[in-house]
Amino acid sequence: MTEKQAGMKFTKLQATGNDFVLIDLIGTPRPGADWPRLARAMCHRRLGVGSDGLILVLKSDSADFRMRMFNPDGSEAEVCGNGLRCFARYVVGSGLAGEGGAITIETGAGIKKAESRDGGGRFRVAMGRPGFRAEEIPVALKSEQAVLLDHRLRVAGRDLLLSFVSMGNPHGVCFVDDVAGFPLKEIGPVVENDRLFPQRLNFEIARVVSRREIEARVWERGAGETLSCGSGACAVAVAARLHRYVDSPVEVVVPGGRLGLEWDGLTEVYLSGPAESVFTGYWPEANLLEER
User: Fold this and answer.
1) Helix H or strand E encompassing 194
2) Distance between CA atoms of 281 and 287, rounded to whole angstroms?
3) Could you give the residue numbers annotated as active site?
4) For 5-15, how does the pLDDT look when each residue is reduced to its tens digit (9 = 90+)?
5) How many helices (H) and strands (E) in the chain?
6) How many whole angstroms separate alpha carbon 161 and alpha carbon 197?
7) What does the alpha-carbon distance between residue 83 and residue 254 come to, in Å, rounded to a whole number?
8) Which segments of the chain belong to CATH 3.10.310.10?
9) Where are the alpha helices (DSSP H) in the chain?
C-alpha cells in the first residue's frame, strides 16, 4: 500500500507522558491544510489517535528546523517544552538532523536550541529567558512591577496566589500544601479563561519538597490537565527560585515523571528530560487537509 493510498503518515511520541502526534512536512509540504481542524480530529482521545498536541516539522529560513504546535482544541501554542524534546527526538532519530548533537528550532517564541544526551534518549532544551512584566505574560493588570508574585485571584470561593511567568507562553504558578488533592479539573478551566488573561493562561500548582525538588501538576491552555508540561515545569522552577524556595538545578516531579531545570536567575532556563517514539501510522482522513 502506498502512502497516498494509506493516508498521511504520522509519528506518535511522548516525553514524560506528554504525548504528541507529529507530521513531517520537510519533503511533503501541504499548502492549504486546515491544521486546527486536523489537530482537533487527531488529538481526540476516543475518535482520533489521541494526544496532547499536533506538531509539524517544517523547513526554516532562520534555524535548522521550524516547529508549529496545535493544541487539542485547535489553538496554536507559541512554544512547548516537551514538544521540543519530542521534535528533537524525531529529527535526530530519523536522520534529518545529520551529524552532531545540537539543533536549532524556530518556534513562535523564538529560536530554541536542543542538545541530545545519553545517546538520544534525553534532550536538554534552552527555553529562553523568562519574562515577568504584565505585558509580557500578558495579564490585564496596570503594574510597573518588574516581577508579579503572589497576585490574589478569587476563584470558586478560594483565594489563589499566582506568580506570573512568561516562557514565550503565559503561566501562573500557585504554591499549595496538597498538590494531589487540589481540584485542578474544577479550578483549572476557570483560571485559564479568566478575563484577566487576554491570551488565556497555563495554570500550575506546586509544592516545594526540598531545595532540589518540587512536586507539580499543570492545567494546560487548550489541552486541560496533562501528565507533564515542559514550559510549565520551567515556570514552576523560575517562580520557586524567585521566592527563594529552591536552588539550581532543581527537579520538577510531575505525574508523568521527572524533569531537570536549571536557571541562574538572569539568563536562559534549561529543561532536560527523556523523549521517545511510540509508534508510526497513517491518518486516513485526507479530506481534512483540504482548504474549506
Assistant:
1) none
2) 17
3) 80, 229
4) 578 899 999 99
5) 5, 18
6) 15
7) 16
8) 3-126+276-289, 151-267
9) 3-6, 35-43, 81-93, 184-192, 230-242
As a three-state string, the secondary structure of 15-56 is ECCEEEEEEECCCCCCCCCCHHHHHHHHHCCCCCCCCCCEEE
C-alpha cell at 71: 493544541
- In 3D space, the residue among 171, 170, 183, 179 whose CA is nearest the CA of residue 214 turns out to be 179
CA distance 264 to 268: 8
DSSP helix/strand/coil, 176? coil
Distance in angstroms (rounded) separating the CA atoms of residues 85 and 70:
16
We find that the CATH architecture of domain 3-126+276-289 is Roll (3.10)
10 Å CB burial of residue 81 (0-12, 13-18, 19+) is buried
CATH number of the 151-267 domain = 3.10.310.10
pTM: 0.92
- pLDDT of 169: 96
pLDDT tens, residue by residue, 148-199? 999 999 998 899 999 999 999 999 999 999 999 999 999 999 999 999 999 9
Contact in structure between 132 and 148 (CB atoms under 8 Å): yes
CB-based contacts of 144, cutoff 8 Å, min separation 6: none
- What are the distances in angstroms from CA 39 to CA 10, 21, 86, 112? 12, 9, 17, 23
- Distance (Å, whole) CA 198 – CA 96: 38
